[in-house]
Amino acid sequence: MTASLSDFKKECARIARLVQINALVDWDQQTNMPPGGAEARAEHSATLSELIHGISTSDSYGELLANAEAELQGADPDDDDARLLRVARRDYDRATKLPSRLVADLARHSAISQDRWVRARAENDFAGFAPYLERMFELTREAAEHLGYEDHIYDALIDNYETGARQRQVSDMFADLKPKLVELTQAIAASGRPVDSSILRGRFPIEKQKVVTTRVVSAIGYEFSRGRQDEAAHPFCTNFSRDDVRITTRFDPGYIGIALYASMHEAGHALYEQGIPSEFDASPLGSGTSLGIHESQSRLWENLVGRSRPFARFLFPHLKDAFPDVLDGAQAEDFYRAVNSVSPSLIRIDADEVTYNLHVMLRFELECELLTGALAISDLPEAWNARMEEYLGVRPPDDAHGVLQDVHWSAGIIGYFPTYSIGNLVSGQLWHAIRKAVPNLDDRIEIGSFASILNWLRANVHRHGRKFEPGELVQMATGEPLTSSYYVDYLTAKYSDIYEL
Ligand code: ZN
Questions:
Q1: What's the gap in Å between 292 CA and the centre of ligand 1?
Q2: Of 46, 316, 453, 492, most Cβ neighbours within 10 A?
Q3: Residues 351-383: pLDDT tens digits?
Q4: From the CA of 263, how far away is ligand 1's center (Å)?
């Protein structure tokens, strides 16, 4: 390795360690910290974030990067080091395009605005929150102008979360998806065959739920020697190296659905991070490539595997062992149907597989319109409610169950929502490729053998880290560009069977 390249990599590792320490501080805040620690913890995070931002946008970092690039000129562009420099260059250019005054304004306003959002949601007071949201969109528009874009202001923002994704492409994807999902949702509602999900409710002691979730995430390949599971109000996955990837879950003693599927979802994220090659650790390539691809991993394990009939057959005997009283007389098929009940609801995070993307679509359309000025903040609640009625057939009784339900916009996370749907579509496309590659997939799942699925994901997704952009990765892994057809086919086949459409 050339001296400049190795100097640059050392600097990258130093920054990556600081980022990992910051993640550790955040993990502790969400799992163990006593309430009294909040104030000091905010200072810990702010100090570290400022330090990291300072180093990674400094002139000296830029110089190290430029020297490494000069030394690597003429190298194979797909070589790991060439790709590493490309990713580092992209990150550096984006980070240095924003004036530090704007970065500080955004950070400050985000803290205030989130605080106002919490209050507004509790008090169902959109009008009180509106000026803060207005300001957030102003600052975001300003940031987008600095970042630059060719066609649509949204392009500058989505690129933060999904490199290479464009507003037009997302809008085409949704235009294709929307009528199919609306039609399927209406057909299910009209079928007159509601699915009984009552067996998911009852007395499920938390200690026993822990035994089950531990067994499940271990079975799919999550390594506890390189991770652990704790409880958190909002389950998440975080990591401090590829060999310390932690997951969290939430237990409800009266409902088995939350802990089980939150565990599988977060373990899906964790399997991705545990599968990043050790040589990429603490480097710009050492994590998942985008939020959409990350979400494809979590959704694949949670839904394509976890809500499948063969998985229900694998899991049900374990559930019966743990909870013999509540599940007395029930069959695996009852459980399968219960975890796949579809009903249009007001809240995105509670949505089933069929209606989930309609919630995302609505947010995407509204944030595009807010950014371009086609929609005024004051008209947002009514636009939200009208579209909920149009897409899902339900109308929020108040703004707390409507436009105020998500934290994202208040925190300045604008351009992010489509990554949830991209993740769903990618999960369907990967699943189709896995089915072709792995014979007798359902039989394997039914006996609790998941290694062939994990090995396929390791070989085709995990091992690349951030080396390839999401679009390139999907093309390489599945042989074609991202399409919604596999996901739609999956939903249609599955729910036509369950609801006898
Ligand atoms: Zn997720």
A1: 9
A2: 453
A3: 999 999 999 999 999 999 999 999 999 999 999
A4: 11
